[in-house]
Write a structure and sequence with these properties.
By secondary structure, this protein is of the alpha/beta class. The protein contains 5 helices and 5 strands. It has a 5-stranded parallel sheet with strand order 2-1-3-4-5, sandwiched between helices. Strand 1, helix 1 and strand 2 form a beta-alpha-beta unit. Helix 1 packs across helix 5 and helix 2 runs parallel beside helix 3. The longest helix has 26 residues. The two termini are 22 Å apart.
């Protein structure tokens, strides 16, 4: 009997970022990561924490929750730290991986984000190669988590 081919589900990334230039650059890094990893990556974007809370709350019902969130800290309506605190209060969303990508180099800001529930904090780099390395780490962590989840479901 021939082996059955199984199509891997796309990795779903939600970018929460208000600077459209940063969104463009990170999506470009994700396109490169898609080629390197040979894995489909679906990407959505919202420009503030409030819209992100509404989106992930709605998607938890429809079973289309992102596999990973990429979060800026300085945003209108609801900043990144307040978003993290709100997200981590939800029992259904508390384990959703969140990676912060910020321009801040201040250790106190990074520590505050980690205490609020970030999985890791990255400083936004100035070159495409460094941004690609960050994108690969983020998507790699999401894929590893997806693999653990599908193995546990079997």
């Amino acid at each position: 009997m021939p082996p059955v081919e199984t199509k891997e589900r796309a990795c779903r990334v939600l970018i929460i970022e208000d600077d459209q230039d940063d969104v463009f650059l990170f999506k470009r890094a994700l396109d490169s990561a898609r080629s390197i990893l040979d894995r489909e990556i679906e990407c959505e974007q919202v420009d503030n924490g409030l819209d992100a809370i509404f989106l992930v709350s709605r998607e938890e019902i429809t079973d289309k929750l992102p596999d990973v969130l990429v979060l800026d800290l300085n945003m209108p309506r609801l900043d990144g730290v307040k978003f993290l605190k709100s997200l981590r209060r939800s029992l259904l969303l508390k384990d959703l991986p969140v990676f912060v990508l910020t321009t801040s180099t201040a250790p106190a800001i990074h520590e505050e984000a980690m205490r609020a529930g970030a999985d890791k904090v990255f400083v936004k780099p100035n070159d495409a190669e460094a941004l690609l390395a960050i994108a690969l780490e983020i998507v790699g962590a999401a894929i590893a988590r997806m693999s653990r989840g599908s193995a546990a479901a079997q």
